[in-house]
Amino acid sequence: MTSSALGRDFRLLWSAAVSSRFGDALRTPALALLAATVTRDPRIIAAITVAGQLPPLLFGLLGGVYADRWDRRRTMALVDGVRAAVVAALAVTIALNRVSVAVLLVTAFLLAALGTLFDSASFALLPALVPLDALPRANGRLQAGAAVAGGFLGAPAAGVLFAVAPALPFAVDALTFAAAALFVLALAPTPVAGANSRPAVRRGSVWSEIAEGLRWLRAHRTLWRVTLLAAASNLAISGIMAVLVLYALDVLRVPPAGYGLFAAAAIVGGVAGALGASRLAARLGTVRALRAVLAVETVALAGFALARDPVPGGFALAVFAAGTVVWNSLCASYGQRHVPAGLLGRVGAAQRMVGLLTAPVGAALAGLAAAAYGTVPVAGAAAGTFALVTLAAWRALRPAAAGVLNATGAA
């Protein structure tokens, strides 16, 4: 899934991303299993989940500031080194039978907080490693590699390793973080300034730099509209994911033993979408492709809401997942092409912040609606939301206004 045309540094970054994603896929389910061995109180288990979701909202913009201030390559390596130490300490704690709820809460929060800085630096570093016209391809390869490592390799292995020894998946995760840090350190040093940079300015306070990133995002008409559309889409995506298992079991009549295979349809679709994102951008141009992807997702989600059998439901889920990954790849590429290099960390963090704000709202609304009316109306509402988003996108994302001069994927 890598490509020699993208260069040595991209292969190193790809290897780091895949290694880290494999470890994440081991740790996430293992942490849930571990929490269930410590307590059966659903409130505490939910609190551990929330502890891993809060840092991007609390520190995401701050991570963007330091991703623009510091050397991004060294920042990523340092973060992965610290994460390796944190997870290794957790593995030792488990092996010594000293794990507690407090340990799990602190670990989940700390890893997620470190991840906000890593994500901002990684997003901002990629344009310095590959040609700008190769960004859709590079982002697609990164997402495809992460999907395979996480969905096909890491997630199935997590339960097996945990059954052998509860500390084992965390020990392996620590090794993957250490390997990722070494891959990143092997990258050639890259300055923050780049082809789309602006003249250097005197640094202000952290808050003034955060405000600068937010102002730039708000002033860029197309990127701001893409960000709002992504937030609206996430409202529906989070809602459908919150009730997916119930919908699959109760409405599509997926056997419990076959749920893993059903869920794998989304992974297959995601890989296909990641590998095809650059071709779609090359054929239509990025902005036109974004509009088309939303239309396809709307049709797929409507088909999912109408399906009453595992096969058509799984196919619709795969198409929807493919569209989601294409959207994410192309959005990232568009921002990386148009945002000044010195602002990439802050603008990327601001985009993620806006998108994340709607996710808990969508999940909460879906849970309440499913409890009151069942899961079928939730799927229908998600499809309706996507239809509205698609209509808005076809009006708001006009290639001419976005500066699209041709269909080469340049805009």
From TrEMBL:
Alphabetized GO MF terms: transmembrane transporter activity
Subcellular location: Cell membrane
Keywords assigned: Cell membrane, Membrane, Transmembrane, Transmembrane helix
Membrane-spanning residues: 44-65, 102-130, 142-168, 174-195, 223-247, 259-277, 289-307, 313-332, 353-373, 379-397
Membrane topology: Multi-pass membrane protein
Gene Ontology CC annotation, any one: plasma membrane
Pfam families: MFS_1
Keyword Hydrolase among record annotations: no
InterPro entries: MFS, MFS_trans_sf
Endpoints of the signal sequence: none
Designated name of the protein: MFS transporter
UniProt organism field: Micromonospora parathelypteridis
